[in-house]
Amino acid sequence: MSTTEPTLDGIDLENDVFAERIPHETFALLRREAPVHWYDWKGGTGFWCVTKHADLVAVHKDTETFSSETGATALEDLDEEQIAARKSMLDMDPPRHDELRGLIAERRSALETHGLASDVAGDEADRAFGRVCDTIENDLLDLHLAEMARIEAARARAAEGHYGLCADCGEPIPLGRLQAHPTALRCAECQARREKLFAAAF
Ligand SMILES: [Zn+2]
């Protein structure tokens, strides 16, 4: 049976374990008996398993010791090229991370203050071109803002202890979906149902 109580020696954190659900009883065991635990991962070098909330907060805040820029946001051992290819705001340390956040926030409030109108002077064609550029830039900005909002919301759910649980049905969101969409709020079924409901309302 797969429901036997886990022991520290037999801890299994391979991907397959997460395919169906998050193994909460394994994390409870770790928090109880080995809150900082080295795991010899089959897929690579391995990793430290930090399972207590206060320790996690300390690790996240100490970006000098625990960098997000050196591939630590992935379990796999990444080479330089792979690290460069997956650079997103999640894979950045301060000050770059905070600078980007600041830039986006600044730009956002400027847009809100002045509206979305282009300042481009000149003839009608120039103005039209300026508007297209503004639109593209604003679309990109909106994507960043939406991503940031989703990350903040996911962080809040993690702090409250229900990250990875579907907001609608309460069931664990399968790991495959969380890997593709780490900030997913719902399981695929509930998300599809919700989108259908919204579509029907218009
Ligand atoms: Zn669901």
User: How many beta strands in the DSSP annotation?
Assistant: 2
Structural class: mainly alpha
Q: Number of domains in the coordinates?
A: 3
Number of helices: 8
Order of helices and strands: HHEEHHHHHH
Write out the strand line-up for the largest beta sheet, numbering strands in chain order: 1-2
**How helical, in percent, are the residues?**
40-55%
Description:
The protein contains eight helices and two strands, in the order ααββαααααα. Helix content is 52%, strand content 4%. The protein has a two-stranded antiparallel sheet. The model is unreliable at 117-121 (pLDDT under 50). The protein is globular and about 75 Å long. It is mainly alpha-helical and 202 residues long. It has helices at 15-20, 24-33, 53-61, 80-85, 96-114, 124-160, 175-180, 188-200, and strands at residues 36-39, 47-50. The chain folds into three domains: 1-61, no CATH class; 88-161, no CATH class; 164-202, no CATH class. β1 (36-39) and β2 form a beta hairpin. The protein binds zinc ion (ZN).
What's the short story on this structure?
The protein has 202 residues and is mainly alpha-helical. Helices cover 52% and strands 4% of the residues. The chain has helices at 15-20, 24-33, 53-61, 80-85, 96-114, 124-160, 175-180, 188-200, and strands at 36-39, 47-50.
Set down the secondary structure blueprint.
Elements: H1 15-20, H2 24-33, E1 36-39, E2 47-50, H3 53-61, H4 80-85, H5 96-114, H6 124-160, H7 175-180, H8 188-200
Antiparallel strand pairs: 1-2
Zinc ion binds next to helix 8.
